[in-house]
Amino acid sequence: MGNALFIIWRESAEAMLVVGILYAWLKRQPDGHKGMRYLWGGVAAGVGLALVLAALMLGMMQWLSADSMEYFQLGMVTVAALLIMQMVLWMRRHGRTLKRDLEQGLQQNLETANWWGMLTVVALAVGRESAETVVFLYGVGLEQQSLASTLQVIAIGLLLASVTFWLLQKGGRWLSWQAFFRVSELLLLLLAGGLLVNAAEKMMNFGWLPPLIDPVWDSSALLDDSTSAGNFIATLTGYRAHPALSVLLAYLTYWLAMWGLMRRTNR
After folding, report:
1. Which family does it belong to (predicted)?
2. Closest CA to 216 of 247, 190, 195
């Protein structure tokens, strides 16, 4: 549940950043008031895209057999991990120019009075964040919770994101956008590692991946991943009290790959 809350908080704050940039830009334009309804229309379309994706996933759960569901969950966990890795690298590459790129896109639409083009830009920007949130939440297993618990987590996540966005907009004395992205980036990378460990274990259960040595060690006396606290850390970071060697190698390969990709992105 903690991982789901973190995902909703982080992705909602990022979506609010995008909408906040576009809103502030429109307020500065002489004819910007005409674009406001297209801005909010784009936000609604982006959220609608996420709801359609969520409905399709829930529908798949009803339609698939038990075995097919296992394969589907493996696919979603893997996709969620890869999407998180891609998102972290994308933000590293484009984070500094995000505001300028969004404003340039809107300026071109404003010059040609292409309000529907503006709506499409907003819908794609918000839809990207919303769709990622749905996939990530499925990856960490939020769909297994009751509807009341799910709505409660979503409400708390949105509230935390709103407070965070307000603090960030107040000037960043205690919290800057740079610090927000750096801390949440590290947590996202840990979460992606945890999802990949989950995927590797599923592959091992299917017989696609040999365990090699199982287990390599037993650290349950220090932190048992079957307890509530241990399970939370295991889901967030990929920690295992009894890891198989193949899972451990997959985890180390992931971190080496991310270290190399982030070094190349920073050049």
Report:
1. Belongs to the oxidase-dependent Fe transporter (OFeT) (TC 9.A.10.1) family.
2. 247
